[in-house]
Specification:
- The protein is an alpha+beta fold and 94 residues long.
- It has 3 helices and 5 strands; from the N terminus they run ββββααβα.
- Helix content is 38%, strand content 22%.
- The strands form 2 sheets. Strands 2-3-4 form a 3-stranded antiparallel sheet. A two-stranded antiparallel sheet has the order 1-5.
- Strand 3 and strand 4 form a beta hairpin.
- The longest helix has 16 residues, at 67-82.
């Protein structure tokens, strides 16, 4: 598994962390188990991480099978964003 370069991770306290994907727009609160799992994945230690949690992180766009998979999604999103949108005002949310 490949942790996304677009994932932002912030420790809140000993039991919680905030994780956000600037690529997919997902934002989630991790509990202590999720924090430990994310750290293990970021260090390349996927063994022992709960498969259900890994699936959830992948579904939300924090994990990819490979860097190339993440790159393809980035290119798709960039192409969509750069496509002509006649008479549509620019909208975004922070």
């Amino acid at each position: 598994m490949y942790p996304s370069r677009h994932a932002l991770y912030v420790d809140i306290d000993d039991a919680h962390a905030l994780i956000a994907s600037s690529l997919t727009g997902a934002v989630d609160l991790l509990d202590a188990e999720g924090k430990a799992a994310w750290r293990a994945l970021a260090e390349g230690r996927a063994g022992g991480v709960d498969q259900g949690l890994m699936a959830a992180l992948k579904e939300r766009g924090y994990l990819f099978e490979t860097a190339e998979e993440e790159g393809r999604l980035f290119q798709e999103l960039a192409a969509t964003f750069n496509s002509p949108r006649p008479n549509q005002p620019l909208r975004f949310a922070v």
